[in-house]
Amino acid sequence: MNRILVFALLLGTTLITGCSAGDERRYVAAYQQALVDHRGVTGIDPGAIDSFLAVFTDLTAENLPALIASAYAEDLYFSDTLHVLHSRDELTSYLKKTGDKVDAVTVDVLSVNQDGEDVYVRWRMQTEFSVMGRDIDAMSVGISHLRFNDQGQVILHQDFWDSTEGLFSHLPFVGGVVRWARSKT
């Protein structure tokens, strides 16, 4: 009976999340196209990187929309592996909703490296939130690939991180399926 329940949960999770090779190809193709469409500048003011970092210091901040307006261009490509967005308004709405759902987010910058127009920010993120009355303290690591325009605003933001470890493994039901699947590998 236990195996049937686990199989049903795994199947349901797969159907709900819509995992398919087509989705993966579209995701990669969108990023590749964004690299072509959003060419950055090479002379990036360090203050531009500081403006970007200020956005993620506190997603619950009252002045979050102003921080985003300062750091991000109106037209952009943003992907955090969960959502792909194309405008500053979409990003502001998304990050405000995220901030409303968490108790705290702390991002520690581990390094910043630039290669031509590309900036890579390596980070560690701690997120505190509650789900179904359970307090969750999730830690994850990742890298953000950024490009800036000549006004020092982000025009391309692609995150590379393990959303399964950083988020989904902590959720009721889904987390159990994730842990079970890991135990089988």
Describe the structure.
Helix content is 43%, strand content 33%. The protein has 185 residues and is an alpha+beta fold. The protein has a single domain, classed as Nuclear Transport Factor 2, Chain: A (Roll), CATH 3.10.450. A six-stranded mixed sheet has the order 2-1-6-5-4-3, sandwiched between helices. Strand 5 and strand 6 (154-161) form a beta hairpin.
How would a crystallographer describe the biggest sheet?
6 strands, mixed
For the terminal residues, how far apart are their CA atoms?
A: 22 Å
Number of strands: 6
Number of helices: 7
Kindly state the percentage of residues in helix.
Answer: 40-55%
* Overall pLDDT level: 82
Give the arrangement of secondary structure elements:
Blueprint: H1 2-17, H2 21-37, H3 46-55, H4 64-71, E1 72-79, E2 84-87, H5 88-101, E3 104-115, E4 118-131, E5 134-148, E6 154-161, H6 163-166, H7 174-183
Parallel strand pairs: 1-6
Antiparallel strand pairs: 1-2, 3-4, 4-5, 5-6
What descriptors fit this protein?
single chain; 185 residues; alpha+beta; Nuclear Transport Factor 2, Chain: A; six-stranded mixed β-sheet; 6 strands; 43% helix
A few lines on this structure:
With 185 residues, this protein is of the alpha+beta class.
